[in-house]
Amino acid sequence: MSLLQEVYIYKNGLEISLTILAVLQSIYILRKPSTKNTGLLHGLTFALLSLNFFLLTLTNIFHLAIDDLIFALPLASYGPLSYFMTRTIIEPDAKANGITIATTIASGFFFFYIVNSITTQFTGVEYYWNILFIGLAAVQTHQRSHRLDPYQKAWLMQYLIGFGFIFSIYLPVFYANHFYPDIFLSFKVPFTILFILFLVNNFRHVVQRPQLLSRLAAGTTPVAKAITQFMNEHQPFLKFDFDLKSMAQQTGYSERQLSETINRSFHQNFNQFVNGFRVQTAVQLMTADVKGEKLIKEIMYASGFNHKVSFNNAFRRVHHTTPTAYRKALLNLDLHAVET
């Protein structure tokens, strides 16, 4: 077996690995309930990526004569989808609806079709198309970085620069393919390895911090700031019957607006949001009770809970332990401090 044949086999194996990784990534992102439209765009990007590599692998292994236009739609989609995903993260009022996305991708597809119908030589128009949109997204990310938390900004820039770099280095290699096909084939192995590393890095970030795909960092919108200030100053959560309707009446915002803000900005539902303040109050009461004179039940009622089960569940969700164990650890810490 010649070196060229070995390279060909390795390339096919790597493209199969890329396809599997892209499929897993798209499934994971699309199944995350908190990502909303941003996750849909991001997941669709990798779903099309997996489709593209699947088609490439089929053509390489079985030597199928598939028209280049079949690859055009997935290829022309990466840049626009990444651009719309970035906008929905950065812009509070951005609307990346299906019609806009479909129109943008379709225009790229037909642009690719027209250029390739005029000339038989490779033009790379779909790569320029993607680089244009990714460049616009990177500029917007930089200009509006104040709206993002540091992790969101770092991840977005890594994602956009990585995709832009991959498309950029692929262009000259495709041009060289017409003159040096052996060099092109050899290049595909390190290029595919680079692409796998890019996908793994992106997957790692999204798995560790799914909030990266949220529209805005917690508490940055005017409504989010207003309701946080309201909760801290008036402490309405200390009443057992405090609900979304009560918050709407007291803040002047509609129930729908409050619910959407809590979901998007804090990645919680209303009960989780309110119970977070109650747990914070319970911790403050425990910390102030240095001698441990108050019963856990007293602290529970004083912080706004009226059921032990809900108190334990909410407390465990925040501190990963029970209120009793948390208070015991606090008392042991205070005792140790006194003894030393």
Structural description of this entry:
The chain has 340 residues and is mainly α. It folds into two domains: 3-213, Up-down Bundle (Rhopdopsin 7-helix transmembrane proteins); 222-339, Arc Repressor Mutant, subunit A (Orthogonal Bundle), CATH 1.10.10.60. The chain is 77% helix and 0% strand. The protein contains 14 helices and no strands. It has helices at residues 3-31, 36-62, 68-90, 98-118, 125-143, 150-177, 181-208, 222-234, 244-251, 255-266, 270-288, 296-302, 308-319, 323-339. Helix 1 packs parallel to helix 7 (181-208). Mean pLDDT is 81; it is low at 335-340.
Binned strand content = under 5%
**How many domains, as an integer?**
2
CATH third-level topology of the largest domain: Rhopdopsin 7-helix transmembrane proteins
> Which regions are unreliable across 5 or more consecutive residues at pLDDT < 50?
335-340
